């Protein structure tokens, strides 16, 4: 499918409306013409994914999304498909009314949905119920129809946005279509790439409908998808001192594994030296299993001081705990005024004692930790992940990474990137410790906090996808270390990135 050069750009609904208005100002570009192009793109996608399908049902709403559906019906019937069409209302609005009339004029029937209707039998269903303007839960017969489509067991194609999914946030307030393919139009919608969207969008395709580049020139995107990137090749005369010294601070009683994972990820991420400050009881085991780590037992800030002095970047929080020992080390680390990455209990302690950072700092919370930092509920964070990560970054003066499906990276100026990689197998213990180590290693090698956050999230997620090639369930954090090293050096082995 033809892609615009700026297909990594993601927009809010408000900015999409600006793009639509600008497109309609182009000579010859009418609302009907855009609908026709959208319908044609949808038909091409349908036939490409399911060339054997002959019987489809298109479900239309009252607005322009329904208009796309009516014109898809016209084109699909002309292409020889058997088409049934249902509508939520007995009449349509604006350009959608013209599209509806085109369907009827060609001999098509419209079945207006009633509360007790059964779902028509079909080989494939097309969702053209609601577009980008829906920010509430579908109600009544619309919600019931969505549940019937989801329960049909047949493939589903969504036009522009799966109905019930908020195009701005990725939140589902109620019933929402679970599509196998979503064909989205004109420009990328940020809400299709994070949170609950992963379970509703399916394969996402962008059809720009031939809108000229000039239309996009004056509308800045709200966010962008990460691109697959690596660090530049090292000079042949490089030495370990050129690549930074990461100090991992963590590993309370019984939590040595978290500190080791963060430390080993920092090594595999390219840091020249990695030290670990942890409980004395863990030193022997960590030295025995990963001798490249310089592990030292510390009983408090005084023992930590010389390690802080030697380090160039701090990774604070993996397995740290929030008791007296962990809190004392946390305070000493933050008072050292060195670039740092905060995770896990490093974040929980920050929620208890907030401060704004004046040194390069990166926060890596999951939604629960983000909620504690912001003083809200986890559900509020998930309701608008974009607003949450931007507020974290603004409040603490740091780059913030909100982990989860479609991880988000934001800086205090409002810049925001979205990660298109990752998989459910990564929802397991230790994955966050790896990310902490990777990001710290990149910071130590000279990346800015923004670069380290974006590149680190991307490498972490892509390594997870490569490690999950033999199955997501049972994926271990340590399984990512070998592909992480390969990806950091630009070794692809046939890997397909979202670029």
Automatic annotation (TrEMBL):
Domain of life: Bacteria
Essential cofactor(s): K(+); Mg(2+)
Similarity comment text for this entry: In the N-terminal section; belongs to the NnrE/AIBP family.
Subunit annotation: Homotetramer.
Domain YjeF N-terminal: 16-217
Protein name in the entry: Bifunctional NAD(P)H-hydrate repair enzyme
Domain YjeF C-terminal: 223-491
Cofactor note: Binds 1 potassium ion per subunit.
Positions of K(+) binding: 65, 127, 163
């Amino acid at each position: 499918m033809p892609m615009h050069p700026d297909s990594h750009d993601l927009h809010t609904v408000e900015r999409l409306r600006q793009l639509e208005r600008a497109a309609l100002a182009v000579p010859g570009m009418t609302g009907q013409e855009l609908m026709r192009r959208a319908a044609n793109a949808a038909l091409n996608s349908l036939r490409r994914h399911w060339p054997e399908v002959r019987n489809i049902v298109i479900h239309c709403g009252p607005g322009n999304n329904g208009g796309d559906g009516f014109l898809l019906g016209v084109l699909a019937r002309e292409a020889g498909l058997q088409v049934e069409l249902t509508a939520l209302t007995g009449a349509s609005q604006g350009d959608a009314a013209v599209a509806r009339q085109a369907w009827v004029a060609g001999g098509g029937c419209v079945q207006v949905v009633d509360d007790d209707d059964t779902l028509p039998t079909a080989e494939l269903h097309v969702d053209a119920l609601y577009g980008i303007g829906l920010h509430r839960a579908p109600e009544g017969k619309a919600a019931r129809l969505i549940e019937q489509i989801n329960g049909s067991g047949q493939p589903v194609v969504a036009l522009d946005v799966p109905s019930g999914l908020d195009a701005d946030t990725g939140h589902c307030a109620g019933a929402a279509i679970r599509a196998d393919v979503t064909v989205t139009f004109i420009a990328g919608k940020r809400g299709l790439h994070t949170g609950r969207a992963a379970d509703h969008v399916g394969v996402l395709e962008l059809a720009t409908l031939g809108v000229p580049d000039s239309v996009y020139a004056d509308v800045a995107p709200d966010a962008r998808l990460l691109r697959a990137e690596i660090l530049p090749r090292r000079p042949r005369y490089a030495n370990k001192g050129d690549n930074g010294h990461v100090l991992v601070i963590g590993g309370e009683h019984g939590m040595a594994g978290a500190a080791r994972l963060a430390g080993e990820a920092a090594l595999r991420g390219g840091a020249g030296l990695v030290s670990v400050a942890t409980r004395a009881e863990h030193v022997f085991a960590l030295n025995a299993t990963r001798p490249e780590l310089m592990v030292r037992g510390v009983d408090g800030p005084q023992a930590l001081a010389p390690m802080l002095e030697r380090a160039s970047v701090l990774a604070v929080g993996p397995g740290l705990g929030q008791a007296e020992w962990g809190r004392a080390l946390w305070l000493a680390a933050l008072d050292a005024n060195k670039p740092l990455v905060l995770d896990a209990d490093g974040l929980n302690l920050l929620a208890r004692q907030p401060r704004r950072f004046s040194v390069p700092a990166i926060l890596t919370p999951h939604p629960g930790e983000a909620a504690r930092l912001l003083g809200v509920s986890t559900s509020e964070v998930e309701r608008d992940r974009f607003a949450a990560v931007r507020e974290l970054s603004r409040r603490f003066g740091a780059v913030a990474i909100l982990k989860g499906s479609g991880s988000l990276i934001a800086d205090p100026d409002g810049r925001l990137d979205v990660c298109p990689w990752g998989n459910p197998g990564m929802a397991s213990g230790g994955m966050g410790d790896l990310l902490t180590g990777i990001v710290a290693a990149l910071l130590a090698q000279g990346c800015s906090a923004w670069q380290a956050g974006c590149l680190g999230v991307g490498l972490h997620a892509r390594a997870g996808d490569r490690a999950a090639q033999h199955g997501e369930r049972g994926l271990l954090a340590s399984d990512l270390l070998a592909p992480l090293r390969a990806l950091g050096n630009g070794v692809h082995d046939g890997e397909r990135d979202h670029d």
